[in-house]
C-alpha cells in the first residue's frame, strides 16, 4: 500500500498556520492573475469568512472560502476561492471542499454565487454537477490576464422543492 492509499483526505476549518502554504499554492495556481498573499488570506479569516483546508495527513493540499451575507430568506453566499495543489487535482479534493462550502451556505438557506474562468471547463463541470447555472459573463474579470469569467448561481438546497410546494 502507498501512503496516498492509506492517508485519508480530511476537510477541516483552515488553520492560520497554513496561510503561508495557501499563498504558495496561489502562486502555483494563478501566476498570471494576481495571486493572493498570506495577508489576503489572513484578512479573509479576520472578516469572519468560512474557510476550509483539505489535508492529507498534516499536509495542506487545498483551500476554499465562502462569504455569507444576510439572513434567511434573503441570505446570499459567495465562493471566494477554491484551490487544489496541482499534484492532487482530479482526485475529488475540490469537490470535497465545495461540498463543505455548500453545506455552510445551505445552513442559512443562502443562494450561492461564484465566478469562474470561462476556459476552466473542469471547474465549470464541477459547479454544474452541484446545481450551479451560468447567469452572466464578466468580461476581463481576472487581472492582469484579462480573462473572462462566468458568474454562476446555485439556489439553496431544497429551495426548488419548497417553491413548488408553495405553488410558486
Q: Can you tell me the CATH class? A: Alpha Beta
Quickly give the CATH architecture: 3-Layer(aba) Sandwich
Query: What spatial form do the alpha-carbon principal axes imply?
Result: globular
CATH superfamily: Gcn5-related N-acetyltransferase (GNAT)
Average pLDDT figure: 90
Instruction: Kindly give the count of domains.
Output: 1
In helices, the fraction of residues equals 25-40%
**Share of residues in strands:** 25-35%
The counted number of beta strands is: 7
CATH topology annotation: Aminopeptidase
Number of helices: 6
Largest sheet: 7 strands, mixed
Structure class: alpha+beta
Low-confidence stretches: 1-6, 160-168
User: Rg, please?
Assistant: 16 Å
SSE pattern, N- to C-terminal? HEHHEEEHEHEEH
Strand order of the largest sheet: 1-2-3-4-5-7-6
First-residue to last-residue Cα separation: 54 Å
Describe the protein in words.
The protein is of the alpha+beta class and 168 residues long. The chain has helices spanning 3-6, 19-29, 38-46, 93-107, 121-129, 159-165; strands at residues 9-13, 50-56, 59-69, 76-84, 111-117, 133-142, 147-154. It has a single domain (8-165), classed as Gcn5-related N-acetyltransferase (GNAT) (Aminopeptidase). Residues 1-6 and 160-168 have low confidence and may be disordered.
Question: What is the topology?
Answer:
Layout: H1 3-6, E1 9-13, H2 19-29, H3 38-46, E2 50-56, E3 59-69, E4 76-84, H4 93-107, E5 111-117, H5 121-129, E6 133-142, E7 147-154, H6 159-165
Parallel strand pairs: 4-5
Antiparallel strand pairs: 1-2, 2-3, 3-4, 5-7, 6-7
Helix pairs in contact: 2-3
Region (Disordered): 147-168
Organism: Saccharopolyspora thermophila
Keywords: Acyltransferase, Ribonucleoprotein, Ribosomal protein, Transferase
Amino acid at each position: 500500500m502507498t501512503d496516498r492509499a492509506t492517508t485519508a483526505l480530511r476537510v477541516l476549518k483552515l488553520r492560520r498556520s497554513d496561510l503561508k502554504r495557501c499563498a504558495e499554492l496561489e502562486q502555483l495556481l494563478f501566476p498570471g492573475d494576481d495571486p493572493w498573499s498570506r495577508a489576503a488570506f489572513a484578512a479573509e479569516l479576520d472578516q469572519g469568512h468560512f474557510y476550509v483546508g483539505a489535508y492529507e495527513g498534516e499536509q495542506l493540499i487545498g483551500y476554499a472560502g465562502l462569504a455569507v451575507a444576510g439572513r434567511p430568506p434573503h441570505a446570499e453566499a459567495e465562493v471566494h476561492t477554491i484551490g487544489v495543489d496541482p499534484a492532487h487535482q482530479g482526485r475529488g479534493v475540490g469537490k470535497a471542499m465545495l461540498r463543505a462550502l455548500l453545506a455552510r451556505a445551505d445552513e442559512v438557506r443562502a443562494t450561492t454565487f461564484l465566478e469562474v474562468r470561462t476556459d476552466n471547463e473542469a471547474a465549470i463541470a464541477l459547479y454544474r454537477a452541484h446545481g450551479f447555472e451560468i447567469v452572466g459573463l464578466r468580461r476581463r474579470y481576472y487581472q492582469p490576464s484579462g480573462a473572462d469569467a462566468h458568474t454562476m448561481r446555485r439556489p439553496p438546497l431544497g429551495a426548488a422543492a419548497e417553491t413548488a410546494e408553495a405553488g410558486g
